[in-house]
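anyone seen this seq b4? input:
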Amino acid sequence: MTEVFVYGTLKKGGMNHYFLKGSDFVKHEVLQDHAIYAPRGFSFPLLIQSEGDKVYGEVYSVSSTTLAKLDMLESEGTLYTRVNDVELGFQYYLFNKEYGNVNWNEERDKIPNGYWKTQYEIDLNVIIDNRNYTDKADKLVFHMRFFDGQRAPTNKIYMELVKARSYLDLNTENEEIFLRDCIMEGVVSEFKYE
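predicted toks r here
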C-alpha cells in the first residue's frame, strides 16, 4: 500500500474521487511550500512548489492497481510527476512546468487559500460536545457554536473566537477550511462513519 496526497478532483466530493474506490482515507493534510493554480478552461488544479504557500488535501492508502490508475489519470511523466516524499510519508502529483500545452498565469490563476472547492459538497464526521455529527461544514460549525459556552452570533465571528482562544493558525475564510484546520490541529476529532 502507498499513501497518496490528493488536492483537487480526487478529493471527497471531486469528480474523480471514484478512482479511489476501495482505498482507505488516512487523514486531512496540508502540503507546505506548494500552491495550486486553476488555469482558465481547466476543471482541475495544478500543483506547483511555492515557498511559503500551502495546499489543503487528503491522504489515502492506495493499492498498486489504484496507483497505476492514478498515474494514468494524472498523465504521470508528462503533465505531472509523482513525487515520493519519504520525509512526509506520502506521494503526490506535481505539475510538470516543462509541459508546453498549458497557458497559465501565476498571479491570475493562483488559488490563494490553497483549497480546491470540489464539485460536490461533502459531509464530514466530527465529534462535538462528545456527540458524533455528520453534516456539511457550515452546519457543523453552527453545532460547535451552539455547544460553546461563549455564544457567537455568526459562524464567522465564532471561527475568529476559536482562533483567538486557541492561539492556533486556523484559517477562518470559510467553514470548510476552518473545520479541516480544526481537525488537523485537534480542536475537534473526526470519527470514521461505518
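The mean pLDDT is 90. The chain has two domains: 2-109, 124-190. kinda curious what u guys think
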